[in-house]
Amino acid sequence: MKTIRWGMIGCGDVAEVKSGPGFYKANNSTLVAVMRRNGAKAQDFAKRHKVPRWHDDADAIIKADDIDAIYIATLTDTHLDYAMRCAKAGKPVYVEKPMAMDYAQCRAMIDAAKAAKVPLWVGYYRRALPRFLKVKELLDSGAIGDVRLVTSRLFARQFDPATDTTGFAWRADPKLSGGGIFFEGACHTMDFLDFLFGPIEEVRGFAVNQGGKYRSEDLVTGAYRFASGVMGQGTWCYTADYEYEMNEIVGAKGRIQFSTTAPVPIRVFHGDKVEEIPAGDPPHVHQPLIQTIVDELNGKGKCPSTGESGSRTALFMERMLGEFYGRKAS
To answer: Which residues form the domain of 249?
Structure first.
């Protein structure tokens, strides 16, 4: 098996634990170089993670002869530019989620990758995480019978970018993230549901801003229908007085509850009986998906999170938020 040599564009918070170490801990994989516009921070990351070199210019990664594939871990507003440049250089691309600012950008990225004959993957890592694969295994085994519908609920306390000290204020800025906190976070849930039930065919969404702390959406509700016939609905409120998040899949013979955001036990209901299945995440949540990419590049299997699947999630989010942003949904 060939060792896949990775370059990373962007090495901020998401790369520190969630993704970065996965590139040098996955089998047949190594992280050769990292880039950040702030060279001192790139150097610091490289030293702490024992990465051979660092740069403050993306071209040093994109044009390097000793790099086989590139991970784009920058803010959403730069994904299109970097992905296009990587494709032009003939480099396979693994881009963070959200895939791009909108569906049109996603399609442009897909077209560029196809023209260059290079693969394009998206960082929806839940498609490879063990606890999420357990949910899929339960469904595939008929644990709750034929699936009727799925519901998602999220409640979170008010977020104020003006007083934020976490460095995540960009999530509420549509110019940087493509939308708001819903756009940046709820896409993980919807992508996993696409993985379970296939493409969503019809969407009805409503979004408002009630808290007034930022300009993007802070309350979203909607209903949708998968082409497979499964129905869905969701409520995401970011101005509540408590924290709660859960998905429930309702079948003809039972129900499954699981969380997108927390490694809490999966709960399977059959009438009044409840079974709890312990669930946990590996230290570096991207690593299982990174492994599928490395394996695919070595001719073994396929990564389940592609540009095509990522673009479907982008299209769903765009349809949910189209009216709020005054955009014409694709």
So the answer is: 130-281
On whether both 106 and 144 belong to a single domain, the answer is no
Amino acid, single-letter form, for residue 44: D
- Alpha helix (H) residue ranges in 17-120: 20-25, 39-48, 59-62, 79-88, 103-116
Q: Does residue 328 sit within a domain?
A: no
How far, in Å, CA of 207 to CA of 7, rounded? 38
Q: CA 28, 84, 89, 38: dihedral to nearest 10 degrees?
A: -70
Q: Does residue 149 register a pLDDT over 80?
A: yes
Residue 221, SS3 per DSSP: strand
- C-alpha–C-alpha distance, residues 112 and 105, integer Å: 11
Give the Cα-Cα-Cα angle 70, 102, 208 (nearest 5 degrees).
Answer: 130
Which residues are CB-neighbours of 273 under 8 A, at least 6 positions away? none
Confidence of residue 328 (pLDDT cuts 50, 70, 90): low
Domain presence at residue 312? no
46: in domain: yes
Q: What is the pLDDT of residue 18?
A: 98
* Encoded tokens for 3: 């060792």
31 shares its domain with 48? yes
Compute the distance between CA of residue 322 and CA of residue 32 in angstroms, rounded to an integer.
Answer: 40
Please say if the pLDDT value at position 167 is more than 90.
no
How many angstroms separate the CA atoms of 142 and 138, rounded? Answer: 6
pLDDT exceeds 90 at position 154 = yes
For residues 139 and 265, membership in a common domain is answered with yes
Query: Same structural domain for residues 116 and 165?
Result: no
Q: Could you tell me if 294 and 301 are in contact, meaning their C-beta atoms sit under 8 angstroms apart? A: no
Q: What angle do CA 327, 169, 212 make, to 5 degrees?
A: 60
Question: What is the chain's mean pLDDT, rounded?
Answer: 97
Question: Is 330 part of a structural domain of the chain?
Answer: no
Q: Could you tell me where the beta strands, DSSP code E, fall in 36-178?
A: 53-55, 69-72, 93-95, 120-122, 147-157
How many structural domains comprise the chain? 2
